[in-house]
Design brief:
The protein is of the alpha/beta class. 40% of the residues lie in helices and 18% in strands.
Length: 311
Protein backbone atom coordinates (compact mmCIF):
# COMPACT_ATOMS: atom_id res chain seq x y z
CA UNK A 1 0.00 0.00 0.00
CA UNK A 2 1.20 3.51 -0.79
CA UNK A 3 0.60 5.71 2.27
CA UNK A 4 0.97 9.49 2.49
CA UNK A 5 2.04 10.46 6.03
CA UNK A 6 1.42 14.00 7.25
CA UNK A 7 3.93 15.23 9.83
CA UNK A 8 6.30 12.40 8.99
CA UNK A 9 9.21 13.81 10.99
CA UNK A 10 7.20 14.58 14.13
CA UNK A 11 7.20 12.54 17.33
CA UNK A 12 4.42 10.25 16.10
CA UNK A 13 4.92 10.55 12.36
CA UNK A 14 8.56 9.43 12.41
CA UNK A 15 7.77 6.29 14.43
CA UNK A 16 4.79 5.52 12.20
CA UNK A 17 6.79 6.02 9.01
CA UNK A 18 9.55 3.69 10.19
CA UNK A 19 6.93 1.11 11.21
CA UNK A 20 5.21 1.25 7.83
CA UNK A 21 8.49 0.99 5.92
CA UNK A 22 9.51 -2.03 7.99
CA UNK A 23 6.24 -3.71 7.01
CA UNK A 24 6.94 -3.13 3.33
CA UNK A 25 4.58 -0.23 2.63
CA UNK A 26 5.54 2.59 0.28
CA UNK A 27 5.58 5.84 2.27
CA UNK A 28 5.33 9.39 1.01
CA UNK A 29 6.65 11.54 3.85
CA UNK A 30 5.49 15.15 4.25
CA UNK A 31 7.92 17.42 6.08
CA UNK A 32 9.51 20.84 5.93
CA UNK A 33 12.88 19.12 5.49
CA UNK A 34 16.00 18.72 7.56
CA UNK A 35 18.03 15.84 9.03
CA UNK A 36 14.96 14.01 10.35
CA UNK A 37 13.51 13.80 6.83
CA UNK A 38 16.90 12.79 5.42
CA UNK A 39 16.99 9.92 7.92
CA UNK A 40 13.58 8.65 6.76
CA UNK A 41 14.59 8.94 3.12
CA UNK A 42 17.67 6.83 3.89
CA UNK A 43 15.29 4.15 5.17
CA UNK A 44 13.20 4.21 2.00
CA UNK A 45 10.63 7.00 2.39
CA UNK A 46 9.83 9.32 -0.50
CA UNK A 47 10.15 12.99 0.58
CA UNK A 48 7.58 15.68 -0.11
CA UNK A 49 8.35 19.18 1.15
CA UNK A 50 5.52 21.13 2.72
CA UNK A 51 3.27 21.52 5.75
CA UNK A 52 -0.50 21.50 6.17
CA UNK A 53 0.01 23.39 9.43
CA UNK A 54 1.56 26.37 7.66
CA UNK A 55 0.08 25.88 4.19
CA UNK A 56 3.55 25.68 2.60
CA UNK A 57 4.22 23.51 -0.45
CA UNK A 58 2.14 22.09 -3.29
CA UNK A 59 -0.28 20.41 -0.89
CA UNK A 60 -2.85 19.69 -3.58
CA UNK A 61 -0.40 17.16 -5.04
CA UNK A 62 0.53 15.35 -1.84
CA UNK A 63 -2.23 12.73 -2.00
CA UNK A 64 -2.47 12.49 -5.80
CA UNK A 65 -0.84 9.04 -6.06
CA UNK A 66 -1.58 7.58 -2.63
CA UNK A 67 -3.87 4.70 -1.62
CA UNK A 68 -4.15 5.82 2.00
CA UNK A 69 -3.22 8.68 4.30
CA UNK A 70 -2.31 9.42 7.90
CA UNK A 71 -3.51 12.81 9.11
CA UNK A 72 -2.65 14.83 12.19
CA UNK A 73 -2.56 18.50 13.18
CA UNK A 74 0.15 20.09 15.28
CA UNK A 75 -1.33 21.07 18.64
CA UNK A 76 -0.80 24.64 19.79
CA UNK A 77 -0.40 24.71 23.57
CA UNK A 78 0.84 28.24 24.13
CA UNK A 79 -0.08 31.39 22.22
CA UNK A 80 -1.14 31.48 18.61
CA UNK A 81 -4.67 30.89 17.36
CA UNK A 82 -5.96 28.44 19.97
CA UNK A 83 -9.25 27.62 18.25
CA UNK A 84 -8.69 28.55 14.60
CA UNK A 85 -5.68 26.39 13.75
CA UNK A 86 -7.43 23.01 13.59
CA UNK A 87 -10.30 24.14 11.31
CA UNK A 88 -7.81 25.83 8.98
CA UNK A 89 -5.69 22.70 8.65
CA UNK A 90 -8.77 20.45 8.39
CA UNK A 91 -10.00 22.46 5.40
CA UNK A 92 -6.59 22.08 3.77
CA UNK A 93 -6.85 18.32 4.27
CA UNK A 94 -10.34 18.34 2.78
CA UNK A 95 -9.31 20.30 -0.31
CA UNK A 96 -6.31 18.05 -0.95
CA UNK A 97 -8.14 14.77 -0.37
CA UNK A 98 -11.53 15.19 -2.02
CA UNK A 99 -10.30 14.63 -5.59
CA UNK A 100 -7.48 12.23 -4.66
CA UNK A 101 -7.38 8.45 -5.13
CA UNK A 102 -7.09 7.92 -1.35
CA UNK A 103 -9.61 5.34 -0.13
CA UNK A 104 -8.56 5.11 3.54
CA UNK A 105 -7.57 7.92 5.89
CA UNK A 106 -6.48 7.45 9.51
CA UNK A 107 -6.82 10.69 11.44
CA UNK A 108 -5.29 11.26 14.87
CA UNK A 109 -7.86 13.26 16.76
CA UNK A 110 -8.40 13.68 20.50
CA UNK A 111 -10.61 12.58 23.34
CA UNK A 112 -13.86 14.50 23.37
CA UNK A 113 -13.93 15.00 19.61
CA UNK A 114 -17.50 13.63 19.54
CA UNK A 115 -18.65 16.37 21.94
CA UNK A 116 -19.89 19.68 20.57
CA UNK A 117 -19.84 22.93 22.50
CA UNK A 118 -17.26 24.84 24.49
CA UNK A 119 -14.75 22.22 25.66
CA UNK A 120 -11.49 24.16 25.41
CA UNK A 121 -8.66 22.05 24.05
CA UNK A 122 -11.08 19.38 22.83
CA UNK A 123 -13.32 21.69 20.78
CA UNK A 124 -10.93 21.92 17.78
CA UNK A 125 -10.85 18.11 17.53
CA UNK A 126 -14.63 18.10 17.13
CA UNK A 127 -14.39 20.59 14.27
CA UNK A 128 -11.57 18.58 12.66
CA UNK A 129 -13.69 15.41 12.69
CA UNK A 130 -16.76 17.15 11.32
CA UNK A 131 -14.86 18.61 8.38
CA UNK A 132 -13.16 15.31 7.52
CA UNK A 133 -16.48 13.46 7.74
CA UNK A 134 -17.59 15.40 4.65
CA UNK A 135 -15.17 13.34 2.53
CA UNK A 136 -17.65 11.03 0.84
CA UNK A 137 -15.46 8.52 -0.99
CA UNK A 138 -12.99 7.80 1.81
CA UNK A 139 -13.21 5.31 4.67
CA UNK A 140 -12.14 7.35 7.68
CA UNK A 141 -10.81 6.11 11.02
CA UNK A 142 -10.78 8.63 13.85
CA UNK A 143 -8.14 7.61 16.41
CA UNK A 144 -9.07 9.42 19.62
CA UNK A 145 -5.85 9.67 21.56
CA UNK A 146 -5.81 10.34 25.29
CA UNK A 147 -3.20 12.49 27.00
CA UNK A 148 0.29 11.61 25.78
CA UNK A 149 2.35 10.09 28.59
CA UNK A 150 5.14 12.31 27.28
CA UNK A 151 3.07 15.31 28.43
CA UNK A 152 4.22 14.39 31.95
CA UNK A 153 7.56 15.95 31.00
CA UNK A 154 5.93 19.29 31.84
CA UNK A 155 6.01 18.30 35.53
CA UNK A 156 9.63 17.10 35.66
CA UNK A 157 10.85 20.25 37.43
CA UNK A 158 7.88 20.22 39.83
CA UNK A 159 8.62 16.64 40.85
CA UNK A 160 12.39 17.15 41.00
CA UNK A 161 12.11 20.28 43.16
CA UNK A 162 8.99 19.61 45.24
CA UNK A 163 8.02 15.92 44.86
CA UNK A 164 4.60 17.12 43.76
CA UNK A 165 2.36 17.53 40.74
CA UNK A 166 0.06 20.53 40.83
CA UNK A 167 -2.86 20.77 38.38
CA UNK A 168 -6.58 21.48 38.25
CA UNK A 169 -7.91 18.09 37.22
CA UNK A 170 -10.19 16.73 39.94
CA UNK A 171 -8.24 14.09 41.95
CA UNK A 172 -11.06 11.55 41.46
CA UNK A 173 -11.42 11.97 37.69
CA UNK A 174 -9.82 9.29 35.54
CA UNK A 175 -8.44 10.33 32.16
CA UNK A 176 -6.84 8.16 29.47
CA UNK A 177 -3.06 8.19 28.89
CA UNK A 178 -1.08 6.68 26.02
CA UNK A 179 2.58 6.56 24.97
CA UNK A 180 3.50 8.03 21.60
CA UNK A 181 5.04 4.74 20.44
CA UNK A 182 1.73 2.98 21.08
CA UNK A 183 -0.15 5.55 18.99
CA UNK A 184 2.23 4.96 16.10
CA UNK A 185 1.93 1.19 16.42
CA UNK A 186 -1.88 1.24 16.53
CA UNK A 187 -2.06 3.65 13.60
CA UNK A 188 0.14 1.32 11.56
CA UNK A 189 -2.20 -1.60 12.28
CA UNK A 190 -5.07 0.33 10.67
CA UNK A 191 -3.22 0.13 7.36
CA UNK A 192 -2.45 -3.58 7.80
CA UNK A 193 -6.16 -4.42 8.10
CA UNK A 194 -8.05 -1.63 6.33
CA UNK A 195 -11.58 -1.00 7.53
CA UNK A 196 -14.56 -1.45 5.24
CA UNK A 197 -16.61 0.94 7.38
CA UNK A 198 -17.21 4.44 6.08
CA UNK A 199 -16.67 6.03 9.50
CA UNK A 200 -15.23 4.51 12.67
CA UNK A 201 -13.91 5.82 15.99
CA UNK A 202 -11.30 4.10 18.16
CA UNK A 203 -10.36 5.41 21.60
CA UNK A 204 -6.79 4.96 22.78
CA UNK A 205 -5.61 5.19 26.38
CA UNK A 206 -5.42 3.65 29.85
CA UNK A 207 -7.31 5.43 32.63
CA UNK A 208 -5.53 6.94 35.62
CA UNK A 209 -6.37 9.66 38.13
CA UNK A 210 -3.69 12.25 38.77
CA UNK A 211 -3.40 10.89 42.32
CA UNK A 212 -2.63 7.46 40.85
CA UNK A 213 -0.09 8.96 38.43
CA UNK A 214 1.69 10.75 41.29
CA UNK A 215 1.77 7.54 43.35
CA UNK A 216 3.22 5.55 40.42
CA UNK A 217 5.96 8.16 40.00
CA UNK A 218 6.66 8.08 43.74
CA UNK A 219 7.04 4.30 43.77
CA UNK A 220 9.46 4.46 40.84
CA UNK A 221 11.55 7.15 42.56
CA UNK A 222 11.45 5.48 45.95
CA UNK A 223 9.95 8.50 47.70
CA UNK A 224 6.50 9.99 48.11
CA UNK A 225 5.16 12.17 45.30
CA UNK A 226 1.75 13.72 45.86
CA UNK A 227 -0.86 15.48 43.79
CA UNK A 228 -2.03 18.98 44.68
CA UNK A 229 -5.36 20.13 43.27
CA UNK A 230 -5.27 23.78 42.14
CA UNK A 231 -8.63 25.51 42.42
CA UNK A 232 -8.88 27.75 39.37
CA UNK A 233 -11.86 29.60 40.86
CA UNK A 234 -9.42 31.08 43.40
CA UNK A 235 -8.83 34.67 42.34
CA UNK A 236 -5.30 34.61 43.76
CA UNK A 237 -4.42 31.70 41.47
CA UNK A 238 -5.84 33.56 38.46
CA UNK A 239 -3.99 36.73 39.38
CA UNK A 240 -0.66 34.95 39.72
CA UNK A 241 -1.16 33.16 36.40
CA UNK A 242 -2.12 36.28 34.46
CA UNK A 243 0.55 38.49 36.00
CA UNK A 244 3.44 36.05 35.76
CA UNK A 245 2.79 33.14 33.43
CA UNK A 246 0.15 33.57 30.72
CA UNK A 247 -2.61 35.49 29.03
CA UNK A 248 -6.30 35.82 29.81
CA UNK A 249 -7.08 33.91 26.60
CA UNK A 250 -4.93 30.96 27.67
CA UNK A 251 -6.43 31.06 31.19
CA UNK A 252 -9.97 30.80 29.82
CA UNK A 253 -8.95 28.11 27.31
CA UNK A 254 -7.41 25.97 30.05
CA UNK A 255 -10.41 26.55 32.34
CA UNK A 256 -12.78 25.32 29.64
CA UNK A 257 -10.59 22.27 29.02
CA UNK A 258 -10.45 21.23 32.67
CA UNK A 259 -14.14 21.95 33.25
CA UNK A 260 -15.06 19.60 30.38
CA UNK A 261 -13.07 16.83 32.07
CA UNK A 262 -14.10 17.55 35.65
CA UNK A 263 -17.84 17.64 34.88
CA UNK A 264 -17.71 14.48 32.78
CA UNK A 265 -18.60 15.90 29.36
CA UNK A 266 -15.31 14.58 27.97
CA UNK A 267 -14.53 10.99 28.88
CA UNK A 268 -13.69 7.66 27.27
CA UNK A 269 -15.79 4.53 27.00
CA UNK A 270 -14.69 1.05 28.07
CA UNK A 271 -14.25 -0.63 24.68
CA UNK A 272 -10.60 0.10 23.80
CA UNK A 273 -7.65 -1.83 22.36
CA UNK A 274 -5.03 -3.13 24.78
CA UNK A 275 -1.85 -1.04 24.96
CA UNK A 276 1.69 -2.26 25.30
CA UNK A 277 2.89 0.59 27.53
CA UNK A 278 1.45 1.08 31.02
CA UNK A 279 2.04 4.18 33.10
CA UNK A 280 4.34 2.10 35.33
CA UNK A 281 6.45 1.12 32.30
CA UNK A 282 6.66 4.66 30.98
CA UNK A 283 7.59 6.18 34.34
CA UNK A 284 10.26 3.57 35.07
CA UNK A 285 11.88 3.55 31.63
CA UNK A 286 11.45 7.13 30.42
CA UNK A 287 10.30 9.60 33.07
CA UNK A 288 12.35 8.53 36.11
CA UNK A 289 15.79 9.11 34.50
CA UNK A 290 14.73 12.61 33.42
CA UNK A 291 13.49 13.49 36.91
CA UNK A 292 16.68 12.23 38.54
CA UNK A 293 18.75 14.26 36.08
CA UNK A 294 16.69 17.37 36.81
CA UNK A 295 17.44 16.99 40.54
CA UNK A 296 21.13 17.51 39.84
CA UNK A 297 20.81 20.12 37.09
CA UNK A 298 20.60 23.85 37.73
CA UNK A 299 17.11 24.99 38.77
CA UNK A 300 15.17 26.29 35.79
CA UNK A 301 13.04 29.48 35.78
CA UNK A 302 9.74 29.10 37.59
CA UNK A 303 6.66 28.11 35.60
CA UNK A 304 3.01 28.01 36.58
CA UNK A 305 3.34 24.27 37.13
CA UNK A 306 6.31 24.60 39.49
CA UNK A 307 4.56 27.46 41.27
CA UNK A 308 1.47 25.23 41.64
CA UNK A 309 3.57 22.50 43.27
CA UNK A 310 4.72 24.72 46.13
CA UNK A 311 3.06 25.13 49.51
Amino acid sequence: MRIAVVGATGRIGAKLTENLLTKGHSVKALSRGGPALDALVAKGAEPFLGSFDTGDGELGRFFEDADAAFLMVKTIWEGGDLHGHYPTVALRFFDALRDSPVKLAVSLTGMGSEVSGNTGHFQPFHILDQILNRLRGINLVHLQGGWFMENLFAWIESIAQHDRIGWSLDPNVKTPWIAIQDIADLAAKEFDTPTDRHRSVKQLGIDYTMTEVAAIIGRALGREVDYRFIDRSDREVETVYRERFGTLEQWVYDNDTLAALNDGRVKFHDDRPALRTTMEDFVKDTLRPLIEKARTDAVKPETFLTWSAQG
